Amino acid sequence: MVVAVEPVVIPLDAERAVSGLWNRPTGAKAVLVLAHGAGAGMAHKAMTATAEGLGERGIATLRYNFLYMERGSKRPDSPALAHETVRAAVAKAADLAPDLPLFAGGRSFGGRMTSQAQAERALPGVRGLVFFAFPLHPPGKLGVERGAHLADVKVPMLFLQGTNDEFARLDLLQETVTGLGPRASLTLAQFADHSFHAPAKSGRKDPEVMAEILDACAAWVASN
Asked: Which domain holds residue 192?
């Protein structure tokens, strides 16, 4: 299925705005507001593949840039500014598709900024959060502090994670998700890393891993 991509503008205030990309397939059943990771923007091939794959599964997406990415900077925005951008993108998606169930989340950094925003103050209309490779800790610096705010998220959460993700050691991630109770679900992609890449020796190919992740996302969205 080929879904037309519509560029949109997401205003933050009277003077600032970020770009977005809107994909709504025919017969869409829900919309996911999708934030990018720290090092690559909304048009990165992984973000594009995610949006296209979700479109094929009946989920509309609104991808968007954080302000630093919009300005060509490599230094991520402060959490407060990132949360403001998340809220603006969620509001834009609600305007674009008021008839669809609304979900939010994103890739790595973008997912964490979304969950922080939700923990701080509930995102209006959002039924659940989806994390593509939640960054529980920096590589080599084990800990669970980055997940502490998740206890304040009161909507369902889906964690989509590779078992070899250096940003989330498996036992620590499982402990974190289990501690959140029944509102949190974890889907593991065997052998995959933070980019959902599986080494050749595993016998798995990246498209297979991605299809597994997207199938899980679509099924979870449909059930929530």
From this structure: 5-223
